[in-house]
Amino acid sequence: MDTTTTTNQGKAGDTVQINGTALSTTAKVNFGTAAVTPTSVTATQVTFVVPSTAPCSGQVSVSVTSTTGATSNALPFFVIAAPTTTGTSVVCVPAATGGPVTLFGTNFLSGTHVGVGTVGTVAVTPTQPSQVTFTAPANPGQVGTVSTQPVTITTAGGTSTSGTTLIDYYLAPTITAVLPTSGTAGDQITVTGTGFVGVDTVTFTDSAAATATAVFTPISDTQLVATVPGGLAAGAGTITVHTCGGNSNAQAFTLT
Fold first, then answer.
1. Which CATH number applies to 84-170?
2. pTM
3. Is the bond into 140 cis (omega within 30 degrees of 0)?
4. What's the pLDDT band for 41 if we cut at 50, 70, 90?
5. DSSP state of 71
6. Nearest CA-CA partner of 191 in 234, 245, 255, 239
7. Would strands 223-227 and 188-194 be described as parallel, antiparallel, or unpaired?
8. Which CATH class is domain 3-79?
């Protein structure tokens, strides 16, 4: 029995065809140390499924044994390791635009695309086995302030486990009111709105377009208290709130 395979690489669960001669009496496929029952047998072809007991990666020998105990020549077969993910370079992106993300893990080199939960997929061509950079797509239909999505990568070795690596999509915050509507350095201003999750900066801008970052205390997802910073010119100005979702609208505020 002389044999060849239609492919010399794959992963557990893949269907492989062995081509050759005098194969009609094949009783088993020898996949490394595992004996695998063929799914179909003809005189010139044997089909089998790579067993779940296949090694995670590396080379094994494949041959067939007939009902009389005769064994064919052995062929090399390379088991492709499944990818794993360990984290991302950022923990969140704006829902309105998405953004650049580097995904970290193992066995990325044969990667074809990255999946971001229900948001979408992105084609990739990794050049390193342990990381790949892609642009996370926007999530324009998002309703809640934060939407957590699993990030996976698909390679010739399969798709990484969903839920191991996550990324958050944030809607931009909105300011609806500030009280009082005017104040001087050191005054405390209550800012009300929506999407105040993960606020990292509150910025005051004066009439000359100069800016200053305020000290603030989060109260809830809809309210925070900011202290008017010093060094700004008196007159008409604005307040903005920033989160991972981006900047809020500029709410009018008068500096006195």
1. 2.60.40.10
2. 0.82
3. no
4. very high
5. B
6. 239
7. antiparallel
8. mainly beta
